[in-house]
From TrEMBL:
Coiled coil: none annotated. The keyword Transferase applies. One of its GO terms (biological process) is methylation. This is SAM-dependent methyltransferase. Keywords: Methyltransferase, Transferase. It comes from the Bacteria. GO terms for molecular function: methyltransferase activity. InterPro entries: SAM-dependent_MTases_sf, SAM_dep_MeTrfase_SAV2177_type.
Length: 264
């Protein structure tokens, strides 16, 4: 077993799987998820809303922007409508590189995230904090052609805003013009004062590892990029699907989302 695989320590990907109703999680992940849900009761709704945002955003980048290759960092455990499934429904020849730092995620990804015959998927066990290594190892991607960079619900696990900005700058800087960034992360800007106070307390006491960002901090990740309409929005409000069965409010899905294009 990989020495980094510790079922006694909660991992964000497995906790997210628990919130989405999956079975690929352990007691530590469920305990962590339940503790966070006490501070943020809509955590499960937010997880589903964030997943739906990923689906809509990837579909836009593939169908409307014509991007045929994706770098998805912070993949999470496979559920319905993973990045490659959404992109390859639009264009079967799409290529996807998945990146995560949990060996369990990689084991499941290699087994379950199979590509269309025309396309290709590959998987890197690497940490977001090592963007240069990620870029060096993304061998199936052609960095002369547009790439969809997926940073969905991952940056908020980094407490330091400056470090986060440098990582995004490094990743986006390596992408050619016409590439797109799909970004989402937690915020307390949209919460009631009572919920915000509960979130702040859970972070202060170590019950939470999710470090929310303000709208201004979120916008700083998009410097130099062209926002796609409707710009920065709560994930439930970013091009919502009118046929969806769930329409979360900004308080329930307190996550900012955006898609932005790298100009020429």
């Amino acid at each position: 077993m990989n020495e980094g695989f510790d079922t006694g320590v909660a991992h964000p990907a497995r906790r997210y799987n628990y919130w989405l109703g999956g079975k690929d999680n352990f007691a530590a992940d469920r305990e962590s998820g339940d503790l966070l849900a006490k501070s943020y009761p809509a955590a499960r709704i937010a997880a589903r809303a964030n997943r739906a945002f990923l689906r809509r955003a990837v579909r836009h980048v593939a169908a409307e922007a014509g991007v045929r290759q994706f770098l998805d960092i912070g993949t999470g455990l496979p559920t319905a409508d993973n990045t490659h499934q959404v992109a390859q429904r639009v264009a079967p020849e799409s290529r996807i590189v998945y990146v995560d730092n949990d060996p369990m995620v990689m084991a499941h990804a290699r087994a379950l995230l199979t590509s269309t015959p025309e396309g290709e998927t590959t998987y890197l066990e690497e940490d977001l904090r090592n963007p240069e290594r990620i870029l060096e190892s993304a061998g199936i991607l052609d960095f002369t052609k547009p790439i969809g960079l997926i940073l969905v619900a991952v940056l908020h696990f980094l407490p330091d805003q400056k470090q986060s900005q440098e990582i995004v700058r490094t990743l986006v800087g390596a992408l050619p013009a016409g590439s797109h960034l799909v970004l989402s992360l937690a915020t307390t800007d949209l919460l009631t004062p009572e919920l915000k106070a509960a979130w702040d307390e859970s972070l202060r006491t170590g019950r939470s590892d999710v470090h929310p960002r303000t709208r201004e901090e979120f916008a700083s990740f998009l410097d130099g990029l062209e926002l796609v309409s409707p710009g920065i929005a709560p994930v439930g409000d970013w091009r919502p699907d009118p046929d969806a069965t769930e329409h979360p409010t900004p308080v329930e899905a307190s996550i900012f989302g955006a898609v932005a294009r790298k100009p020429s």
